[in-house]
Every structure is written in C-alpha cells, then in structure tokens.
Amino acid sequence: MCGICGKLALDREAQVSPALLKSMADTIEHRGPDDEGFYFSGPVGLGFRRLSIIDLNTGHQPISNEDGTVWIVFNGEIYNYQELREFLLAKGHVFKSQTDTEVIVHLYEEFGETCVEKLRGMFGFAVWDEKQKSLFLARDRVGIKPIYYWLSDKALVFGSEIKAILADPEVKAEVDVRLIDRFLSFYYVPGEETLLKNIRKLAPGSTMLVKNGKTSIKQYWDLHFAPQEISLEQAEKRLIELFDECVRMHMIADVPVGFLLSGGVDSTAMLGFAVGKTDRPLSSFTLGFSDPGVIDERPYAQLAAKRYNANHHEMTISSKEFADFIPKYSWHMEEPCCEPQAVALYYVSRLAKDYVKVLISGEGGDEAFAGYSVYRNMLWLERVKSAIGPLKGPLSSGISLLNYFVKSKRMAKYPSMIELPIESYYYSRTSGPASFFNSHARELYSKDFARQVDKPFSISPATSCFSATAGNGNSPVNRMLYVDTRTSLPDDLLLKADKMTMANSIELRVPLLDHKLLEFAAALPENFKVHNFTTKYLAKVALKDRLPKEIIERKKVGFPVPYDTWMRTELKDWVHDILLDRESISRGYFNRQCIENLIADDIETRRYPKEILSLVALELWHRNFLEHRTVAGPEHSLSPVLSS
C-alpha cells in the first residue's frame, strides 16, 4: 500500500519539475513513510511514497521493464501476482524483484490496456510507455484504491489523494457549487465529480489512456446480476471455498497482519478463516463505548477473539477525542462525508499501528450478500405494493394520518414511497427523497443558491444505476445492491476505509470485495440473500457452525458511535459556532433560520444528528481546502473547543 502521484504535460517539449513532484509526494507521505521514488522523462513525471508490505528490500518504485521503456507507480496489492509471475517468466520476462508491482509492468508488455483484466486485487496505478508516449491509469474493479485527476488543455495531474494534485500551483481550488446539493442528497459525494472544480475520480473498474494529446476512459468491469440455478447446499459449499480462498490470498504479506473486529458476522468470519494460514500469532482490534443507549461491540469482539485464539486489543474514545479529530478528519477524507464511524476507524487503526502494518476487515459483505435491513424492508414494501394494486393511495394516506400523531421520522418516508417506483425513492441505503435535505430544500437553501440547484443532476449517480438495471428482470434487491456497489461502497465506505487507515500508514484489505466473490454473490437467487425476514441468509446459514451463535443471531447494529449525544451536550456550543458564525453563513448556501431551527430541533427531538454532522463536515471541508489551501495538514486553529 502506497501513495502515487504524477504529471503529464501535453506539450511534448515541456519538462516536469522535480521540485513539483517532490512537493506532491510530500503531501501524501502518510501513505508511504518507508521510501520515496521519482521518474522523469521530459513531459512526464511520476512520484511515489512506499509503505513496505511485500519484498521489503527490493520493492523500490518507480520500477521499469528490462529496457527501461515502461515505468510504473502502483498503490495496492495484487493477490494473484505469484501465479501471474510464473506465467510471465515462462514467456521470457526477466524480473529484478519479488514484488507484485513488477508483475504489472510485464503484464502490460504482454497485454497492453487489457492487463487489468488479469489482476485480482486492489489497485490504482500509472504506467508510462516511453515508446508509445502514453500514460495509462487504472483503478480496481470496486474502487478500493482511489485515483484522482485534474485535466486541462495543458496537462494531466493525478494522485492517490487530492492534496497531491493541489500541490501543483496550476491547479486552482474552486468549489463546484453543483456538488453541494449532491453531497446533501446522499450524505457523501457519489459519481466521478468531486466538490473541487475539474478534479475528478477515475471510476471503479475503469482505465484512462492519455496519448497524442487525447484522453480516453474505458470501463473494463461491471457487476452483472444474473441469478443462476443452484441449490442451497451447493451455494453453501462454494461460499465456504471462496471465503477460504479470499482470506488466504489476502494474508500474503512480509509483515504482521491483524484483524478489525466489529462484533458482526463478516469481520468475525474473516478472523475465523485466517486460522492456520499464518505462522505468526493472530491479532485483533476493536473500539467500543459504554455510553448509555449505545450498543457496545467490545464483548462480541472479545468473544470472537477468544474463539479463534487471537491476541485482542481494544479501546474507546471520548467526546473530546472525537471533536479534536474532526478537522483532521475533513483534511484526510478530502471529500465531505457523514461517517462518524470513520473517526472510530482512525483511532482503532492508530492503536493497531503499534502491532501490525496490515489490517483485514469485513467491509463489503453487506453489499455482496444483502446484509442491511433496508434491503429486506424495501423488498417487502415492493411486494406489498404489488399485492394491493389500486389500494396504494388509501394506504399512503392512512400512514400519513397515523404519522400526524406518532411523528416518526422513519414512518414519514413511507407514504411517498408507496406511490413511487423504487428508482424514484431509493437513492442509496441511507438516502432518498424523504431525507431531510431532500424534503426540506426549499427552507434550507438561500434563494440565490436554490436557483443553482439541479436535482436531476444531483441524484444522477443513482438514477443512472437504476437505468442500467432496467428491463433485465432484476429483482428489487439486486437493483438496490447494484446502486450501492456503484455509489455508496466506493464513495463512502471505501473512501473512509482507505483514507482513515492510510492516515496512520496502515494497509486495509477487504477479502469480501474480491471480484470473484462478488460475481458469485451477484449470480445467487434473491431468496439466498433476503429469505423471508432474514438478511444475508446464505452467509448466515453457511457460517452457522463456524461462528459463535451469539454473533450469528445478533441484530445488525453497524459500528455505533455516540456522536449524536455528544453533539447535543458537550459539543453543542462548538456545533453552533461552526455552523452559525459569519464565515459559514457568508458562503450563501443556507438560510440561517433553518440551520438554527435544525440545531434546536435536534436538541429537543434527537432526530437530526446526521444532518448536523454533514453540515459540520461541509463547513470544515471549505476551511481546509478553500480558505487555507493547506497541503501539509489542517490549521491548528480549526481544532474545536469543548463547551463547558
């Protein structure tokens, strides 16, 4: 795991400045504190920061082919590299290291742009072909590793993080106001755009080729849902085989590997399948809270660690530690995102850093096997709608009338959903038209800003995914899974996973997002995913004799962080100062009275913590990336002060 950056001037007579590339690489030193390297050839420059995981002695980058005509900088891990290396050796290629990076170089020589189709792993890399005078960028299939880029008529600038791109003085940090509403519509920023004008994400499963002044982007992989006939017994057997294979491949490392435990099925399964696959003792890490009303994950993590004889480490954090990190959270994430669990991940990976260099998590299991309750709830909603036919209108009115007295935030979303098709009400597993920012936009936005909002553009990442699954006989569950795999997975969950662990120079691996496992899951019948009222049905059935019963049968709770209570108590003055000071209001996005009402309503009703944290994240993003234009870290003045 590393950090990459680079620049290609489209004028072949231009020269890339070594000082510039050094400055770019310095901004991402946290991604690779062990080594740095650079390659320059006229109009191109490649930069690299290394976190040593495999072949600790000879893994320096950039690295080239035998005659120095193909150069690469690579971030990630290729889990089938040993098999590919044997194939390439048989073809006559000469290797000077034992790294997976060098395998890609020679694979590119053999297959060109289609080399990515042979790779099994997570990656973001850039290949400079001196003979072709071309730059080739590639990102892994589901977006585990990021690649950002800025393209003008003069140059392409790219990096593992936006900070590296902003180190180039030619790149101007300007907000793309169209993306403000997209962020608030989803609570993260899906799609290829970022909040900074002209800085974009290379989409998951895509490559970019820059040659002769022209740029082309191709999608080389997508997840297709085509259920196949298979018995439950056959599916269980194949799932166990894939789990075993994926964990074994993800254990490859020349450094210690540990496990993040959330107390759930997926992370516990990853630890269980690791038993016997390493000569080193297993280590596990978790974070929990003893605050009233918050489910503490630590007892379940302890249960798993004891079951599999792992050396277990755990911690907790206070409201002050949460608040102290929020400005740095904004700086590391680089895109506004409402992910309080990301703060917990930062602290637990910081704990793990004292013991391991690689962490394995169960991220992705819910998207693969339909683990979230929303999939079950929306499936049953669609079934009820289909069954009652013309009675949908009266049912909608009845629920609205009932909620007039109950005043349930959860119930409030259902009346409109009953009368709409799924593609009109499902933006992601956490958002839809009934979400606060979508249903209260008229009161929230200032008149001037409201005129700039283009809601079809804002929600287009979701609607385009639904369009791609229309007319193929796809079930509601599979359509929702496709939307989330293409949007919230790469642009929310994996963004958090990469940025928070890399902030601590830790590599995070996600075996459940191996593309072969995802393709297997996509081909399963719907009732193997949601069976009656049971989510993640196949996984739970297949793992019932391998995991503690208490973990298999417990209700899914995510990774709870009591930020909502903290923002109403110890942090309430800080929240008020951030959202209502002159600097924040002067941006012109919001109606001050609406923000005041939102804060007051949350203190009284506890209904809007996610909305308030989203607004805080958005404001701190502005301060980090627009006013201060910092590339070395957030200003100390941004650190919040706890209310007394």
Structure explained in plain terms:
The structure is a single chain. The protein is α+β, with helices and mostly antiparallel strands. It is built from 31 helices and 17 strands. A six-stranded antiparallel beta sheet has the order 2-3-1-9-8-10. The chain has a six-stranded antiparallel beta sheet with strand order 4-5-6-7-11-12, covered by helices on one side. Helix 6 (232-250) crosses helix 7, helix 22 (476-486) runs parallel beside helix 23 (488-502) and helix 28 (572-580) packs antiparallel against helix 30 (592-605). The longest helix is centred in the middle third of the chain and has 19 residues, at 232-250. It is globular, with a radius of gyration of 24 Å. Mean pLDDT is 92; it is low at 628-644.
Amino-to-carboxy terminus distance? 42 Å
Helix content: 40-55%
The shape, in one word, is globular
Q: Could you tell me the number of beta strands?
A: 17
Give the low-confidence spans: 628-644
Measured by DSSP, the beta-strand proportion falls in: 5-15%
Which class of secondary structure composition applies to the elements? alpha+beta
Q: Note the total helix count.
A: 31
Spatially, the strands of the biggest sheet line up as 2-3-1-9-8-10
The biggest beta sheet is recorded as: 6 strands, antiparallel
Secondary-structure map:
Elements: E1 2-9, H1 18-27, E2 35-41, E3 44-50, E4 63-64, E5 70-78, H2 81-90, H3 100-111, E6 121-129, E7 134-139, E8 148-151, E9 155-159, H4 162-166, H5 178-186, E10 199-201, E11 206-211, E12 214-219, H6 232-250, E13 257-260, H7 265-274, E14 283-287, H8 298-307, E15 311-315, H9 319-333, H10 340-352, E16 358-360, H11 365-369, H12 373-388, H13 392-406, H14 409-412, H15 414-418, H16 422-425, H17 436-439, H18 441-444, H19 447-450, H20 455-458, H21 460-468, H22 476-486, H23 488-502, E17 507-509, H24 515-522, H25 537-543, H26 549-553, H27 563-568, H28 572-580, H29 582-585, H30 592-605, H31 609-627
Parallel strand pairs: 13-14, 13-16, 14-15, 16-17
Antiparallel strand pairs: 1-3, 1-9, 2-3, 4-5, 5-6, 6-7, 7-11, 8-9, 8-10, 11-12
Helix pairs in contact: 2-3, 6-7, 6-25, 9-31, 10-23, 12-22, 21-22, 22-23, 28-30
